[in-house]
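Late entry, written up from scratch paper. The run itself happened at the end of the previous shift, but nothing got recorded in the book at the time, so transcribing now.
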Amino acid sequence: MTYSFGKTVNLPIDATIAKLREALMANHLGVVSEVDVAAIFKAKMDQDHAPYKLLGICAPPLAAKVLASDLMAGALLPCNAAVYDLGNGQTRVELLDPDTMSKLSDNATLHEVAIEASKRLHAALKAL
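Output as recorded:
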């Protein structure tokens, strides 16, 4: 089962994240959380790790539709992205496929929202 789609970008991680934020906003999405995995590994385990960030991506109107149809589905929100350094000035952006969420439920609203979210995420990724 494929659960994500992504793209390799010829930019450092911070520039990639800045460009991704712009592309998401242009598609009516936004970053609602950012987790610096490498910093957490260093602080909690004194383990070095290449730059790796997790972003929570959301479109509040879509999230509201999901929650109006099924409050438990909030556990599936927001859409997630892993953005990580590949070295040599390249960064990988990997986005959770919203269709994965819709496959966990028979709820038609989740399926409808997943289709719309997927369109927006693919458009943002294409803009990178």
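The two ends are 25 Å apart (CA to CA).
(Scratch paper discarded after transcription.)
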